[in-house]
Amino acid sequence: MKYAGLLVMPAGFFLSIAALVLFPAPAPRAAFVFCGIAVETLGLVVAVRGHIEPRGQTMGEPR
Amino acid sequence: MNPAPLAIAPAMTDTTFALTLVLLLLAPLAIAGVALINTGLGRSRSAAQALLGNVAIVSVASIAFFLIGATLTGAPSDGHIIHLAGKPWNWLGTGSYLLGGFSAAPLQSQLAVLFEFLAVALAALIPWGSGADRLRLAAGCATAAVLAAFVFPVFAHWTWAGGWLAQLGVNFGLGAGFLDPGGAATIHALGGVTALAVIWITGSRKGKFPKEGFSTAMPGHNAVYILFGCLVALVGWLAFNLAGAILWLHAPLAALPIAAVNTLLAASGALAATFTVTRIRFGKPDASLCANGWLAGLVASSASAALVSPMPALVIGIIAGILTALLVEVLELAVSIDDPSGAISVHAASGVWGIIAAGIFAGGTGQLVAQLIGVAALLGVVLPLVYLLFWLLNRAVPFRVDADGERIGMDLHELGGGAYPEFVIHRDDSYR
User: Fold this and answer.
1) ipTM, 2 decimals?
2) Running DSSP on this structure, what letter comes out for residue B430?
3) In a 3-state reduction of DSSP, which class is residue B34?
4) In this structure, what CATH number is given to the domain that contains residue B342?
């Protein structure tokens, strides 16, 4: 889950960049940039949820 | 003021050069303030390691930036350019190696490099506070080296050195391109998302999130350091915001006093908002959260202080203060993120808010879209990239101290002596 979220975030970035190239008109361009940010936010939420530590455990402890 | 899209830098007068140099000599006070806040928000048994870490990270970041980073940052006149869809995308700097020819460069370029040195040192400090009490000194220095050598230079080139974000105005008609004169994105949001990656990889402090009940409160050990750090940081922030306005927006001298007033108003509004929110939530104002609020206002002002009028600056600060007070609590209680310095709320969230606010208050839709694309680059490129680099780095230089080191404290474990040898130091069982 945590890696899936981190992979989704670049997809949102490329969506925003694609909007610049594909839509010269301001309104659809702005809409697609917003969509790109929304996809990134979704990826961030998934990554954050994937990194929630089980109670009583610490993920980063050396094995 | 309304900056032109990627304005060509006018020749710098002697007066402007002298003023900018003096401002940049005051900018390290922002570093000192953040260092004090980082130390105060950690535990007493790790205080010496925390402050030594701050100094070491500034040193490592400066050396790494000199050896590699400054070359990759480059200047507006150079860069690796790829052509896509008929537009040039300047994505990486091609500056001279080891600052070759630095003293012969134009005055503006010399000051820009100095600004970037100070900026990278400040950005590298931000994740150190988030890893307090469990992040090893060697790992802190290693993260600073990676950040200063590769991540910061790439993003700084995009925003300050004529990269594709700065040229969004010229190439796509998006206002004046991505604007970030004081470093809300390039320093703070970048440092904040780096802090998130460090926390994810390092994990929380032992006992922070017990099996049952709420998370354990681990308050900062010295409120005086924290609050004095806020006042020290104000001077540094004023210097960064004003020097950034001169260097990146080519602001005239007459535009500087209002930028200074806006910086102070944003911080004041944020403090008032955090004070009020914590007073309502807890019955009494919380000193460390108020300090976080003050800093969040300064961070939010970094993008917009030179671009907006005073009323919007105050509103930007108030929203940053409310956001910080609520987000610190949400991150700890809802998603179990152990962030002792609150860097994610203060630097990442408020930095992003500042970037967006600059688009809302300082320009039309085009400017807002340019600012949003900058945010998209931070979240979609910087965070995954930093996470990947730090995940690999953690294999070579383990980030987290062992359980015994965490129990006795970072001072004794890593330095062999404590910061307060004559005082009684609290043990873990003191907290619950």
Assistant:
1) 0.93
2) G
3) helix
4) 1.10.3430.10
